[in-house]
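Is this the right way to post structure tokens for a design question? Let me know if I should format differently. Anyway, here goes:
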């Protein structure tokens, strides 16, 4: 699997730093931001740069969901992982409608997150190879 360019948005700085470190050790390039406004600014600046956007669903300012809602209009075509501490059937339907590739329930293991990133990386490779 090739290295991915990942944007990680989480308002819990400690979690963001640890997750970023784990993903870097797996060979990925990771930019970390701590709010939705910063994530949207980075994605607007160069939407094709990131293959994967991992975001917390609930952050101050723009939430991860609000950022995700804007991705089609700014030209982002990468994969999306939502980290969520609260999940209901209604929310799952909303997430499907937003074309979120994976929803990861908090708390999660880094092994599970790494496996999801590998799976999405393989899907990206297949998509680019065709």
């Amino acid at each position: 699997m090739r290295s991915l360019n990942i944007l990680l948005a989480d308002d819990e700085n400690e979690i963001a730093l640890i997750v970023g470190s784990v993903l870097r050790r797996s060979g990925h390039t990771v930019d970390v931001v701590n709010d939705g406004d910063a994530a949207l600014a980075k994605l607007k600046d160069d939407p094709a740069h990131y293959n994967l956007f991992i975001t917390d669903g609930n952050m101050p300012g723009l939430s991860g969901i609000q950022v995700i809602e804007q991705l089609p209009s700014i030209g982002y075509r990468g994969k999306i992982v939502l980290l969520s501490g609260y999940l209901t059937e209604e929310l799952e339907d909303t997430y499907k409608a937003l074309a979120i590739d994976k929803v990861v329930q908090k708390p999660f293991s880094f092994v599970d997150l790494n496996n999801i990133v590998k799976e999405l990386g393989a899907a990206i490779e297949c998509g680019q190879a065709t």
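Format looks fine. Someone answered above. Worth noting: Residues 5-125 form a domain with the Rossmann fold fold (CATH 3.40.50.2300). The first strand starts at residue 5 and ends at 9.
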